[in-house]
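It is worth pausing here to work through a concrete case rather than discussing structure prediction in the abstract. The textbook approach is simple: state the sequence, then state the predicted structure, then interpret. We follow exactly that order.
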Amino acid sequence: MRYKSCRLLEHGIYFYIDPGTGHLIAGHCCNTDNLDFSDRLYLYFDLKNEKLDWNYIFEEKRKLREKAKKGIYPSQCDGCFELQERNWDDDDYINHLTAGHIMKCNSRCIYCPTGRIPEWHNKEQDVDIKPVIAELLNKNLLKFNGSLRFVGGEPTLMKEFDWLVDLFSKNNVPEIYVPTSAIKLSKSLCKALEKVESAAVVTSVDAGTKETFEKIKGTKFYNIVINNMKTYLKHSKEKNFVISKYILFTNYNDLSYEINQWLNNCKKMGLVEVQFDSEHSVSSSEECENKKYVNRTLKMLKYAEMSAKKYDLKVISFLAFMNRAKRIFEKQMNFFNENKDKFFDLFVNSDTKEINSDKYYKDIYVKENAISAELIEQLDKLVSEEKFSPIRRVFIKISAPVSDELSNNLMKLLRLGFDFNIEIENNIQADIIDEIIKTSFSSITYLKCSKWFDFYKKKKLKTKYSNIIKLSSVN
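Step two, the predicted structure:
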């Protein structure tokens, strides 16, 4: 019968460890945001103490199937790209396995919730799903015409990783997906890349330089990671089987220089596809802790996608994040449009005490010498409380030279999602304006150009950004 459903709801099983209890949990898929127990995607909450009943599992899937035929889906499925309309069968079997029952990892990424907690990060694997897979095989309930996927932790550290990869690849599974740090090279994965019809080895490098990599990943294995990715690429049936991923993390790697350096490295390695994402607290839900960074992240993703085209690299957008981020941004815009008469321009001279935290603000007009750490702290708080419009600008006059303190504060305003309208007096450091243009998508509409800056504008800015910005000068 033809209707819209999901391959994971229909025939998928997902195993993972609950970080709070350490229990092995089974579910339909790994999308567990906005958990609703009335239409839960979980099946079992503690497989150590509960007997796995496949009759129960398929009964639950049949219930979801009947609802899907009527156009009714679990709340977690809202906006998910896995929902597809096609002819679905009514048979009971599993052909999509997701193994995520490991928390141990050989990286310590600064954006990872698990990585921040030592007892989670170093937790040894104390469960094994081999018996579960064996039972599926014995009952003739496992088909190999679907997919094998991993989440983690670091999948290559999983006790049964090689066994699973070998089992599914030998049985000609058409799809394997492995997100890996690429610190440990897997021989079984190399073999699978040569054989599987569609394989994906995804490594979050997240940096264009060794120094930034070490800050974000918490390891000193940059060269090993790059070399192992090259090895996977050599074994790949297709070049797009090996993908480098860039997870934007505010205040660490969300700069145009870092992104361009990473893209350049990807091209040198011989990669043809890249992927972008955002750290979990921005992308996890509409009530995310870092909602203030959503606007900034959307801008940076757009810039990164535009930059990738220059390197002839195909971009795989992280649709789950984009859908959530756009919903958050639209929600903020709706609030602004409904209450725009309450939003005022904020004028700051030098005394930040004049800022009224009870008011709503649209744009900020500020003198160069008034941009202080105290002001940034107050603006950060206002943005977090949604007291600023989602589309917000800072109007500022800058004269030369730009101090390190001012430069840092301008970057902080960028990360709070501000666009810029700048009046230039005399010479200023070109890289500051360059970064503002690239990462805020501002139209710098008011420039008092000296001969030096006019030369820079004509020869460099015009060449770089002819499709991005409009420049005008005021004599």
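Step three, interpretation. DSSP finds 16 helices and 16 strands in the chain. The chain has two domains: 93-331, 340-465.
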